[in-house]
Amino acid sequence: MFHPSSQVAFKPDLIFQRKEMEIFKIMKSIWIIGAGRMGVKAADVLIHKNPDSEITLVDKDLTVCKKSSKPFFKVVCMDGVLFLHENLRRPDYPDWIIPAAPIHVAYEWIRLKLSKKYRLETISVPDQVVMSLPNPFRGDAGQVYISNADFICPSNCPEPEEICTYTGKPRPRILHDFLESIQYDDFRSVVVKSQQLSSGIGGYTPKAVFKALRQVEKSRSSVLFSTACRCHGVMHAFKFL
User: Fold this and answer.
1) pTM score of the predicted model
2) pLDDT for 115-150, tens place per residue?
3) Is residue 16 in a domain?
4) Would you tell me which of 5, 8, 176, 219 could form a disulfide with 188, CB atoms 3.0–4.6 Å apart?
């Protein structure tokens, strides 16, 4: 019988190898927002997996930028959300965006993108919504962190479609689908779906954030805005004024 601590039954490394072979075929240009420990780790792993990748690390901290500078990727020293605002112009470039900054990157980009056309106000995620979420935790900036897991996930989890690597059982829910289905008062739930690209590294395509932008603009009501993969996520709430 499978035991969670063994991680043998599902051979996550083999699953990852298959997933990565497919992912890296379409991973030529990558923007990593945040050049701290996690951002640099992501850049190192991804350039090792695909030496032909064009990787750009973005961080506003000059000291961090200098420490992160390596000949294998480009470092841009400016605010990451502002970088996206000024350079993310179409849904097919770059291939992937990896949020590695201690903020809800997609949410902050949406807010900045809409700021010239609309007045938006960040509000608290309603208690009734929070109570419906798995293992919720409120952050200091109005965000709510969400997870299917009440345990520490294995670092080499490949996020298989059918089961949880740790428990060996089907997930209680596919988190991004669950969040998208939330209906509460006049709120519309909009979700950017994140995909695990390698061990401990998740990201999304420009197409995903532009889709979310269109959904938000069409709603013109209160919005629950989340970024989530199958197991973990973060949510903000805001309203149009």
Assistant:
1) 0.88
2) 999 999 999 999 999 999 999 999 999 999 999 999
3) yes
4) 219
